[in-house]
Amino acid sequence: HGKPAPYLFLHAAEVMGVEPAKTAVVEDSAHGVAAGLAAAMTVFAYAGGVTPASRLAGPGVVIFDEMRDLPGLLDVAGS
């Protein structure tokens, strides 16, 4: 099943031996954001592409629009 089903993200976490709650998903689509949330992962939504921030926003979603900001966001989330 494709996104917004969480199976791809859950499979990746399993293969990597990491609990889903300790992972991060970086997405630029509403379906990808929904899949990450359904997998109980931390979701970072890139709003600097074709999908506007308003379509990506929601509880538990970190919105950003500059890729250069992502490493700092990941550091803060991992603290």
Task: Using brief descriptors, characterize the structure shown.
41% helix; 79 residues; alpha/beta; three-stranded parallel β-sheet; 4 helices
Brief summary:
This protein has helices at residues 7-16, 30-38, 53-56, 70-78; strands at 24-27, 42-46, 61-64. The protein is an alpha/beta fold.
Give an overview in words.
The chain starts with 6 loop residues before the first helix and ends with a helix. It has 79 residues and is an alpha/beta fold. The mean pLDDT is 94. The protein has helices at residues 7-16, 30-38, 53-56, 70-78; strands at 24-27, 42-46, 61-64. The chain has a three-stranded parallel β-sheet with strand order 1-2-3, with helices on both faces. The relative contact order is 0.17. Strand 2, helix 3 (53-56) and strand 3 (61-64) form a beta-alpha-beta unit. The chain is built from four helices and three strands.
Shape: globular
The largest pleated sheet is described as: 3 strands, parallel
The strand order across the widest sheet is 1-2-3
Strand residues, percent: 15-25%
Number of alpha- plus pi-helical segments = 4
- Low-confidence segments, given as residue ranges, are none
* Through-space gap between termini: 33 Å
Q: Helical proportion?
A: 40-55%
DSSP E strands, number: 3
Q: What's the alpha carbon Rg, rounded to whole Å?
A: 12 Å
